[in-house]
UniProtKB/TrEMBL annotation:
Alphabetical keyword list: Amino-acid transport, ATP-binding, Cell membrane, Membrane, Nucleotide-binding, Translocase, Transport
Transmembrane intervals: none
Species for this entry: Tessaracoccus flavescens
Domain ABC transporter: 2-241
Listed Pfam families: ABC_tran, NIL
Protein name in UniProt: Methionine ABC transporter ATP-binding protein
GO BP annotations, alphabetical order: amino acid transport
Keyword Ion transport: no
Any one GO molecular-function label of the UniProt entry: ATP binding
Length: 336
């Protein structure tokens, strides 16, 4: 489990203080995947450095299975860091080493014997689907295969936590999905807690159980994926369900947004409401997503002049959906 409490990082730039992280708190249980998303400059890179103690936070704590990394020093800190496996955007492999030797490197650092090292390397190459690639060199592998090697290397010391920093942003869509499938399969590997830093909504949709939005060094929205998506006025919901908040979608009437989930997402709500108010309600845009085992439907409707929009909203809510005037929702820029 990862437990981050009130994490703050302040840098000095001349006489000016820059607060890169400002009271960040989050928990990632073992066996789950948590996504951290945010624009460039939001504090994602600083968070990675503080979680791994590559950069000591100004205040707050980082605990891995109850061990406080911020209180550890010297040998104790080096031992604690082994509980975190780190995978970067680029695999950062040693070009002069074979794939097997790259995976073996962390074990060499801790002085593991050759027999244990070989057995572990063989096990991990099998786990990431590279059983026959041990004697190849990084230059002979595709980008996706190199990323698999990076994942195998991160697992070499049997960590409790896997931390991914933009793991798929340099990959094509098909390879991205292959890597995401692999990451998802690792959630049950020794009950790992997995934290993914990303700017890609596809990553969050595909593998995350929960998600946090980091902005200006603070977490401004956080929760289980199904909970944050179910908030019609939430920024994460707008981003994940794909209706552009600033798009001029046309239509002569008043625009209404409606969000449904579970079995209600499959109801013919527009036909029902059109019959109830005696007018045709047009669908201007929509998105249907299957996220974390739940189906979500987000529609933007146009209510014709002469029909009370509040009556339409009331009818939609009576069907178990959430509905609101579009211009009453938060206008947010694209988070991707």
């Amino acid at each position: 489990m990862i437990t981050v409490s009130d994490l703050t990082k302040v840098y000095l730039q001349g006489k000016r203080q820059v607060r890169a992280l400002d009271g960040v708190s989050l928990t990632v249980p073992a066996g789950s995947i948590h996504g951290i998303i945010g624009h460039s400059g939001a504090g994602k890179s600083t968070l990675v450095r503080c979680l791994t103690m590559l950069d000591r936070p100004t205040s707050g704590t980082v605990e891995i299975n109850g061990v406080d990394l911020t209180a550890a020093r010297s040998d104790a800190l080096r031992t604690a860091r082994r509980r975190i496996g780190l995978v970067f955007q680029q695999a950062n492999l040693f070009d002069s080493r074979t794939i097997a030797a790259n995976v073996a490197y962390p074990l060499e650092i801790i002085g593991a014997d050759k027999a244990r090292t070989k057995a572990k390397v063989d096990e991990l190459l099998g786990l990431v689907g590279l059983t026959d690639a041990g004697q190849a060199y990084p230059s002979q592998l595709s980008g996706g295969m190199r990323q698999r090697v990076g994942i195998a290397r991160a697992l070499a010391t049997d960590p409790d936590v896997l931390l991914f920093d933009e793991p798929t942003s340099a990959l094509d869509p098909r390879t991205t999905d292959e890597i995401l499938d692999l990451i998802q399969s690792l959630r049950t590997h020794a009950e790992l807690a997995v934290l993914v830093i990303t700017h890609e909504m596809h990553v969050v949709k595909r593998i995350c159980d929960s998600v946090s939005l980091l902005e200006g060094g603070r977490i401004v929205e956080s929760g289980a994926l199904t909970d944050v998506v179910n908030r019609l006025d939430g920024r994460l919901s707008q981003a994940l369900l794909g209706i552009p908040p600033h798009a001029d979608l046309g239509g002569d009437g008043t625009q209404v947004d409606v969000l449904s989930s579970g079995p209600k997402a499959l109801q013919p709500v527009v036909a029902h409401v059109s019959n109830a108010v005696g007018a045709e309600i047009a669908i201007l845009a929509g998105s249907v997503e299957h996220l974390a085992g739940t189906t979500f439907s987000h529609l933007r409707l146009s209510v014709p002049d002469g029909v009370d929009p509040q009556r339409v909203i009331d009818e939609l809510r009576a069907l178990g959906a959430d509905a609101a005037l579009t211009d009453s929702l938060s206008q947010v820029e694209d988070l991707a």
